[in-house]
Amino acid sequence: MHSSNEENQVPSTWTNPLAMFSLAGKRAVVTGASRGIGRALAIGLAAAGADVALVARDEAALTAVQDVILAHFPQRKVSVHICDLQQVDDITAVAEAIYSLGAVDILVNNAGMNIRTPAVDVTPAEWQAIVDTDLRGAFFVAQTFGRRMVEQRAGNIVNISSVGGHVALRTGVVYAAAKAGVIQMTKVLAIEWGKHGVRVNGIGPWYFNTPLTAELLRRPEYLADILARTPLNRVGELQELIGPTIFLASEAASYVTGQTLYVDGGMTIYGF
Ligand code: NAP
Fold this sequence. Notes:
The protein is of the alpha/beta class. The protein contains ten helices and seven strands. α3 crosses α10 (about 240-250), α5 runs parallel beside α6 (about 125-150) and α6 packs parallel to α7. NADP nicotinamide-adenine-dinucleotide phosphate binds near residues 35, 110, 113, 212 and 213. Belongs to the short-chain dehydrogenases/reductases (SDR) family.
């Protein structure tokens, strides 16, 4: 017996699932967009259809990223916002400027830094610089934009943490503590804001070649140690963070919240 036409009907999301990954008509804020991972993610989100607000301290570098995006996607709206995320007043002011241009659908909470001092030598100033950027800054950025997302009852946040916040690495104790905080913050915010239609997820990268890691990756012995612990036997390419971020930021992940996706070549599951 043939099934009826009615039984053969399937939602358009099943027959055209790639449409769920589109960010057309969305507006994203990317912190730390002046170089490295944030620059790649800003360009990738724009390619997926989003307008983007670029945030960091280096105005010239941000303007260069804006130029690249507009050269490829002249129809996008791209704005540049100077902000030191260690200063909560700066975050508040920059959010006002961003919202004066329109609503925000997506926050990529990416800015971060590291100082790899052995634990016995860490100074209070180093602790403060790392934690104020990677944890305190990340929290107040999430709070500032999340508050507005809760009010508009829609929005989603992608926090960039690190495998170093999940498994123990041999350097960077303060960074590890801060990034572990970001992973846990991602879960708690997902619970608090889920009922308001706001999703909060994270990406945990392993090694990607950026200004943050270039010096380490140039050391042959250190690189060999990294590769020995990486099942895919290579460091990541920046474009390999774009797809996972678009996924989490899009309708394709509409039932995913509180998760941190490790984009790590298999490093975090490698027990031996
Ligand atoms: P990066 O090349 O050093 O870029 C860091 C970005 O953060 C820059 O755009 C910088 O902009 C911004 N930033 C730093 N401090 C800031 C502050 N106080 N206020 C405003 N912006 C600030 O680093 P990356 O490798 O792209 O790292 C991006 C994120 O990924 C970080 O959270 C990092 O911890 C994480 N991560 C990276 C790797 C990796 O292998 N690269 C691995 C795991 C996790 P300005 O200097 O212009 O302000």
